[in-house]
Design goal:
This protein has 331 residues and is of the alpha/beta class.
Length: 331
């Protein structure tokens, strides 16, 4: 196995200059050049010789090489053909790396078919699920994470660098401004850990905001216990679009649920909730229970179990919620 090249900030700048290239702001290219932190990200992935790992944002291959030293197979995706060519040159000695030059997303709600094909090839059904370890470009962090978690394929571990604001929303707690549909969607299936806060100096070029290393560890039983995951996501999306309205009013405003006031209050009471509570105040476990009771009610009475399974189980549902909460889409 070849040894990974340690691409310091100085080496990276020299490499790009020698090829007449500059980082592309439009693609969110902020390279992680603090090697201690880069190794921290890789170590947090807990990679072993049987692991398949996806990296989004190859860059010049600085992190890719460290991943390749530890994993069975690295699938690394880069949208910029110029830095992709540099990475191909730098990583030529590694025979366990697949480099793809494409957008990781076919749409905001669907992974690119080339990426899916490689994942199916190296982590087929019945094998241990792949891991994500990546310095994610800010602009695609939410849709990438959302789409991977929405897959039928299980992702046991995701380790990412993201904007600090997004990290705060990922681990948001009830009663705070950070708590929203994204918080509930992730925490209903994963343990969310913010491992480190990273200042702008860890990257080149320096971003204007702090970042974070976040690790998501799958809770298999919790994921399986959601029932219809698409219906659950659609429920929390609608609840948090009207996060400051009491739950009873939100439920009654959804014609596809077919609830009257008496039934709505009874379902909420069965979950240990009053009709006057707001979604932003309710713990993840209670929202999961509410979804399951609505699903069971529909199954038992031949009525709509809950909202239809959302076709936007990736990012758009999260973006719609954030817009309703006064935030711009993207990260």
């Amino acid at each position: 196995m070849p040894e990974a090249e340690r691409q310091t900030g100085t080496k990276l700048r020299e490499l790009l200059t020698a090829h007449g290239l500059n980082p592309r702001h439009d693609l969110g290219q902020n390279f992680l050049v603090d090697l201690n932190l880069l190794e921290c990200v890789v170590a947090a992935g807990e990679l072993g010789p049987d692991d398949v790992v996806l990296e989004v944002g190859t860059g010049t291959g600085g992190m890719t090489a460290f991943l390749a030293e530890r994993a069975k197979r690295v699938i690394s995706v880069e949208i910029d053909p110029n830095v992709h060519a540099l990475a191909r040159e730098k990583l030529a000695a590694f025979d366990n790396v697949t480099l793809l030059c494409t957008d990781v997303l076919a749409t905001k709600n669907r992974l690119a078919p080339e990426v899916v094909a490689e994942l199916d090839r190296w982590a087929p059904a019945g094998s241990p699920g792949p891991k994500l370890v990546a310095n994610l470009p800010y602009a695609v962090a939410t849709p990438v994470i959302g789409n991977l978690i929405a897959e039928e394929r299980e992702w046991p571990l995701l380790v990412v660098t993201v904007q600090w604001e997004l990290a705060e929303r990922m681990r948001g707690q009830p009663g705070t401004n950070d708590y929203g549909a994204l918080s509930v969607w992730l925490q209903s299936q994963y343990e969310v850990e913010v491992l480190r806060r990273l200042g702008p100096g860890a990257f080149w070029p320096r971003p204007k905001v702090d970042s974070a290393i976040v690790r998501l560890r799958l809770k298999p039983a919790a994921r399986a216990g959601l029932g219809d995951r698409g219906a659950f996501l659609e429920l929390i999306r609608r609840l948090f679009q009207q996060r400051r309205k009491v739950l009873r009013k939100v439920l009654l405003s959804q014609p596809d649920l077919g609830l009257d006031r008496t039934v709505a209050e009874r379902v909420l009471e069965e979950c240990g909730l009053t009709g006057e509570v707001r979604a932003e105040e309710v713990a993840v476990s209670r929202l999961v229970e509410l979804s399951l009771r609505l699903q069971a009610r529909g199954a038992g009475e031949g009525k709509p179990a809950t909202m239809p399974s959302s076709p936007e189980i990736g990012s758009s549902a999260m973006d719609a919620t954030r817009e309703a909460e006064g935030e711009a889409p993207g990260t």
